Amino acid sequence: MMNNPFMRIGLLLFMVLFLAACEDAPPTDYNPEPFLEAYLIVDQPVRDIVVAISRPITEPFSYADMMVPDAEVTLSVHGKDYPLRYVERNGVGSYLLPDSSMTVKPDTRYEITVRFPDGSSMRAETVTPQRIGWITPPREFLQYPQDTTRLFSPDSLRIQWTPGNSIEYIVRVRALDTLGYGKYLEPATVEENERTNNIPFEDPDDPTFYTFTRWGFVQTNTAPTVWAAFRWYGLNEVAILAPDRPMLDWFKATQWGGRSVQYRSEYSNVEGGTGIFASASVADQIVFVLKRKKQ
């Protein structure tokens, strides 16, 4: 009987309510904490800089209510200060550098300063990694095999990139279109996309089942293109991120070794607040994963 997960949850909820009824009312005081999430990508504009204030779990969650649209955010590099501007897209706000032609430089120290209307502030800095690029990029078209468990070594579709000054790398495989498939073929068709379903133990009731991105971690500048990394056929992106130390630590703390994301303050490099200000150099390639050939 106790194998029923709903019964276990119901029992746990009852115990929590019972214990809460036997104790004093919990305190309601809460001190909001400023939060920064900012990533600089070499050769890309400065954008998507999130400045927010944490909210108590006793209140309904609203991403928009966490945002701070009236902070004074400044990016400093080579002794010059560049004010960032708050913009809102589809109800989500973030800061960017208005001059999009000014892209992030490799091997450069950047500092960010955030001043809030109440006079408080937070700051952080990052040194961008050296630029990386493909030596052996992923193939433009990948024919998904009929049986992914019986592949010989040459079928691993090995990729390689220039190391830059990094020794550890983050691998990202992202589905770019989960609906369209046939429109990318020649001649085009109306065939719809579908999941590869390459991991039989994935649970559709698990929220991570519906994420479009898979992450990996390697300690060498060469790696196989693993078939199990593709959640969907069709249009995908394979990317290698050469991160700075703050990004690498943040990634290991929140993504590596499990599915739960847990904040760990020792991996934050933000002074006067929490969060992360980090940078990376990226080599990416769009690939098209063809469906299994019919037997």
Explain this structure.
The chain has 295 residues and is mainly β. It has two domains: 34-127, Immunoglobulin-like, CATH 2.60.40; 134-266 and 280-290, no CATH class. It is built from three helices and 16 strands. It has helices at residues 5-21, 63-66, 245-254, and strands at 34-41, 50-53, 72-77, 80-83, 85-89, 92-96, 109-115, 121-127, 134-136, 141-143, 158-161, 169-175, 213-218, 222-224, 234-243, 274-290. The strands form four sheets. Strands 1, 2, 10, 12, 13, 15 and 16 form a seven-stranded mixed sheet that branches. The model is unreliable at 1-21 (pLDDT under 50).
N/C terminus separation: 44 Å
Number of domain units: 2
The main pleated sheet reads as: 7 strands, mixed
The helix content, as a percent range, equals 10-25%
Overall shape: globular
**Radius of gyration from the CA trace?**
23 Å
Strand content: 25-35%
What's the pLDDT, averaged over the residues?
A: 83
Unreliable stretches (pLDDT < 50, length at least 5) are 1-21
